[in-house]
Amino acid sequence: MLEINNIDTYYGNIQALHDVSISVKEGEIITLIGANGAGKTTTLMSISGIVTPKRGTISFNGEVISDKKPDDIVKMGLSHVPEGRHIFPYLTVMENLDLGAFLRKDKAGIKKDLKHVFELFPRLHERRNQQGGTLSGGEQQMLAISRALMAKPKLLLLDEPSLGLAPIIVRQIFDIIRLINKEDKTTIFLVEQNANLALKVANRGYVMENGRITLEDSAQNLLVNEEVKKAYLGI
Question: Which CATH number does the domain housing residue 210 bear?
Answer without folding.
Answer: 3.40.50.300
